[in-house]
Amino acid sequence: MRQPQLLPESLPASDIDAFVATLGSHRDRAMVLAMLLGGLRSAEARGLLLADVDMGRRRLRVIGKGGKERYVPVDAAFFTEVAAYLRLERPAGLSTPQCFVVLRGPTTGAPVSEAGLRSLFRRHRELSGSIRVRPHRLRHTYGTELASAGIDLLALRALMGHASPETTARYVHLSLEQLAAEYGAARASLAGARR
Questions:
Q1: Which residue range or ranges hold the Tyr recombinase domain (predicted)?
Q2: What is the CATH number that goes with domain 13-194?
Q3: What is the band of 73 on the pLDDT scale with cuts at 50, 70, 90?
Q4: Phi and psi for 72 in degrees, rounded to 5?
Q5: With 35 labelled, which of 55, 108, 120, 139 sits at a CA distance of 20 to 30 A?
Q6: Domain edges within the chain
Q7: What's the pLDDT score for residue 176?
Q8: pLDDT tens track for 146-195
Q9: Catalytic site residues?
Q10: How far, in Å, are 42, 77, 98, 107, 162 from residue 56 at the CA level?
Q11: What is the pLDDT of residues 95-123, one digit of tens each?
Q12: Can you give the three-state secondary structure of the chain, one letter per residue?
């Protein structure tokens, strides 16, 4: 028997705000904002290269699942944090092309690892009390918010790098009010067409 697919879980703004408020570095805020404002998967955020960050056009070149390339526009808040991270925090003279690197300790300058990102999220969930904040939920929040704002589903699919339209369609959560409004508009259109 097939398991029912759960709707992607998005996060309330209060949880996100509390979580982001505990982040103590521009690097950490930039990584979180890449997922929240750009819809990147955690591996995509960690895998960003310096050359993938286009400050002038305010977009990211993302290599997604299966090596598929996409370009994603991202809000200015992300680029503000990235610029501050590159100017103030990223160690000078590194040879790694990765954008996000470890800032202190024995692995300083190495790319941020999956375990490192997991640890960062665990620590800041505890500090903020926002226990539901996880990398993929930030991505879900991005998709859900854009779908709720009425973005075309083909555009959302391209932005999120989904292979299947069914995956993207799961982001459309209509409230009872939205359903009633859509139904009312459709009925009014039909009534007008019959006159």
A1: 6-184
A2: 1.10.443.10
A3: very high
A4: -125, 120
A5: 108
A6: 13-194
A7: 61
A8: 988 888 889 999 999 998 888 888 877 655 667 788 889 899 989 877 76
A9: 41, 65, 136, 139, 162, 171
A10: 24, 14, 19, 31, 26
A11: 999 999 999 999 999 999 999 999 999 99
A12: CCCCCCCCCCCCHHHHHHHHHHCCCHHHHHHHHHHHHHCCCHHHHHCCEHHHEECCCCEEEEECHHHCEEEEECCHHHHHHHHHHHHHHCCCCCCCCECCECCCCCCCCCECCHHHHHHHHHHHHHHHCCCCCCHHHHHHHHHHHHHHCCCCHHHHHHHHCCCCHHHHHCCCCCCHHHHHHHHHHHHHHHHHHHC
Q: Give the separation between CA 35 and CA 10, rounded to whole angstroms.
A: 12
Cβ atoms of residues 156 and 147 within 8 Å: yes
